[in-house]
């Protein structure tokens, strides 16, 4: 699978399997020597060989059936619904940190063997043992919700088939192996120092003997399944929707007959693997007493799009401008420029696969190579070789290369977008983009170029509807495409130069400044852009950051977005800030790489 990776056999697995083979061979050889009279000179050693073989074989069984990843995956096989419930249980569970110390010393005992020779036996003697828990009072969970990655795997599977219709009759299944380690971080440096001090004090006060075994464990207040297998199958939600051989008991039979390694190799070849961190931040203070965001928050290492798809997140009140009184002159984007009501189209775009809005649908369509090439042309024509201080990467790329493009067809989100478009149409035609001061029409405006995506032609230009880019990570982009923008979370990664909203750009090179790569998993090393239908309506035009002025303008209720025209001011880019998620339909997810050639 593109971008994904497979589970691998470890050295311990191979050694265990080899030990099992040697063990059975030793059992057979020892039995022949002991009871069949083979090689009578070795008869007194036969039982030792037999016993050693039994031990090797039992170690092989113990490793394969109880300790191996395969046994854990096959023991916990979940459907999508069961997996979602399990992740939510993990998200709400309290983190626990436990310290354990075991004191011990060695005692020597002198004995004599049957020949009278003195032997010295050294034996470990355990003495004082102690255990303690760190006093966690508040925690914040940032474990990713299941819908995001499940959607990614569905999309990846679809992407392997150029003709999806031809595969509709087939049973399409994905076997997803999830490794779920616990990752805990102190809320800040002070908490980290306090944790370290408490741990060292505990170990020091309980050091009572010559030697100590010290252990610090991450636990959780629910049953933690470190390895689970999820069955993703189109049209059903059943953990039994898998081949007959993919079961723990068949694996056990294979193990008994020394066939566990071939089973594991084939099993791993049929499955995709992902590491799913259970990420929690903790403090000895209640969460409401925290004075800053977590030091190691995902928000600080991923973009706003990724944060928008957190299932369990801290409550952050959405920005509201109602009840405030404007205190300044509206300037060039005055409501006097609003014209008569606008006629808007009804129904889904003509190029969508799903056409009937009377039925609910939520489908992800991978674009054909020809359509993807047109999307590549759009990236090329909207790319501008201009970097700003927001670019955190190593240099300015020369081109963005699309590797996969997915269209999101979602009836629920489209109805909401269509309703908002109808509401804006009743308010009348706003001042159009080409009539605004500054840099001219949208870079993604409808045109006669057949080499560009046809979707550009199907926008309501009289409402300043346009296709705009939003930078993200692949996981974050798919999450937004699944659920839309969470306006209480967006903007925190890019700052609030023009207000706390969703930042959009007409130039892909500007949105690329905020895109981040997935560090691991399916889309490792790749970035993502959302190409969104965006209703801009009446735009408040400004060239410099002035938050009080922007808030006062928005408080009048006359503007639907902010146009920050830095292109006119310093020859960089224009950004569009939207504050209502209903004005944005995230239609396309573009997975891409950066070229520096």
TrEMBL record:
Taking the record's annotation, the residue ranges forming a coiled coil are none
- Where does the source fall among the domains of life? Eukaryota
Region Disordered: start-end pairs: 432-452
* A family per Pfam: TMEM151
Q: How does it sit in the membrane?
A: Multi-pass membrane protein
Task: Specify the PARP catalytic domain's residue ranges.
Answer: 348-597
Give the residue spans that cross the bilayer. 12-36, 48-66, 248-267
Task: Say which enzyme class the record assigns.
Answer: transferase
Give one GO term, molecular function aspect.
NAD+-protein mono-ADP-ribosyltransferase activity
| Subcellular location per the Swiss-Prot or TrEMBL entry | Membrane
Q: Name one GO cellular component term.
A: nucleus
Enumerate the InterPro entries for this protein: ARTD-AVP, Poly(ADP-ribose)pol_cat_dom, Tmem151
> According to the UniProt entry, which residue ranges have a biased composition of type Polar residues?
442-452
Q: Which UniProt keywords apply?
A: Glycosyltransferase, Membrane, NAD, Transferase, Transmembrane, Transmembrane helix
Q: What is this enzyme's EC?
A: 2.4.2.-
In the record, the note on similarity to other proteins reads:
Belongs to the TMEM151 family.
Name used for this protein in its record:
Poly [ADP-ribose] polymerase
- Which organism does this record belong to? Symbiodinium natans
């Amino acid at each position: 699978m593109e971008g994904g990776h497979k589970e691998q056999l470890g050295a311990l697995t191979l050694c265990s399997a080899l030990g099992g083979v040697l063990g059975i061979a030793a059992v057979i050889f020892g039995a022949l020597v002991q009871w069949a009279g083979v090689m009578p000179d070795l008869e007194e050693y036969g039982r030792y060989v037999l016993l050693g073989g039994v031990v090797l074989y039992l170690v092989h069984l113990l490793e394969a059936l109880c300790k191996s990843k395969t046994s854990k995956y096959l023991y916990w096989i979940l459907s999508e619904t069961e997996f979602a419930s399990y992740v939510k249980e993990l998200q709400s569970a309290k983190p626990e940190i436990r310290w354990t110390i075991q004191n011990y010393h060695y005692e020597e005992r002198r004995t004599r063997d049957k020949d009278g020779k003195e032997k010295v036996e050294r034996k470990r003697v355990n003495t004082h043992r102690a255990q303690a828990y760190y006093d966690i009072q508040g925690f914040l969970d940032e474990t990713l919700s299941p819908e995001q990655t499940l959607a990614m795997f569905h999309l990846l599977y679809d992407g392997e088939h150029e003709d999806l219709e031809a595969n509709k009759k087939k049973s399409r299944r994905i076997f997803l192996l999830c490794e779920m380690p616990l990752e805990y971080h102190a809320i800040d440096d002070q908490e980290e120092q306090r944790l370290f001090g408490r741990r060292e004090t505990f170990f020091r006060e309980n050091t009572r003997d010559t030697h100590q075994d010290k252990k610090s464990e991450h636990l959780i207040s629910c049953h933690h399944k470190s390895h689970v297998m999820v069955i993703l199958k189109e049209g059903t939600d059943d953990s039994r929707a898998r081949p007959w051989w993919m079961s723990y008991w068949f694996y056990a039979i294979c193990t008994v007959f020394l066939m566990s390694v071939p089973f594991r190799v084939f099993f791993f070849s049929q499955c995709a693997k992902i590491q799913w961190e259970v990420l929690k931040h903790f403090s000895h203070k209640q969460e409401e007493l925290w004075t800053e965001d977590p030091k190691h928050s995902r928000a600080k290492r991923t973009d706003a799009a990724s944060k928008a798809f957190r299932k369990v997140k801290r409550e952050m009140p959405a920005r509201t401008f109602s009840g405030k009184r404007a205190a300044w002159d509206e300037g060039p984007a005055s409501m006097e420029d609003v014209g008569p009501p606008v006629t808007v189209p009804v129904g889904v775009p003509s190029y969508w696969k799903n056409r009937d809005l009377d039925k609910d649908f939520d489908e992800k369509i991978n674009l054909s190579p020809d359509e993807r090439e047109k999307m590549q042309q759009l990236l090329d024509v909207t790319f501008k070789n201009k970097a700003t201080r927001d670019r955190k990467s190593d240099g300015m790329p020369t081109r963005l290369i699309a590797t996969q493009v997915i269209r999101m067809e979602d009836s629920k989100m489209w109805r909401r977008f269509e309703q908002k478009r109808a509401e804006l149409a009743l308010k009348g035609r706003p001042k159009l983009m080409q009539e605004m001061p500054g840099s001219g029409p949208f870079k993604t405006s409808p045109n006669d170029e057949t080499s560009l995506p046809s979707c550009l032609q199907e926008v309501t230009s009289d409402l300043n509807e346009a296709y705009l880019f939003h930078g993200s990570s692949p996981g974050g982009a798919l999450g937004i495409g699944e659920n839309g923008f969470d306006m209480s979370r967006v903007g925190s990664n890019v700052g609030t130069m023009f207000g706390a909203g969703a930042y959009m750009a007409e130039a892909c090179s500007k949105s690329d400044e905020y895109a981040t790569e997935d560090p691991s998993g399916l889309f490792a090393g790749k970035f993502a852009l959302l190409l969104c239908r965006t209703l801009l309506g009446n735009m408040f035009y400004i060239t410099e950051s002035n938050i009080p002025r922007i808030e006062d303008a928005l408080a009048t209720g006359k503007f639907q977005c902010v146009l920050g025209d830095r292109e006119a001011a310093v020859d960089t880019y224009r950004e569009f800030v939207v504050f209502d998620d209903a004005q944005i339909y995230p239609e396309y997810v573009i997975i891409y790489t950066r070229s520096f050639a």
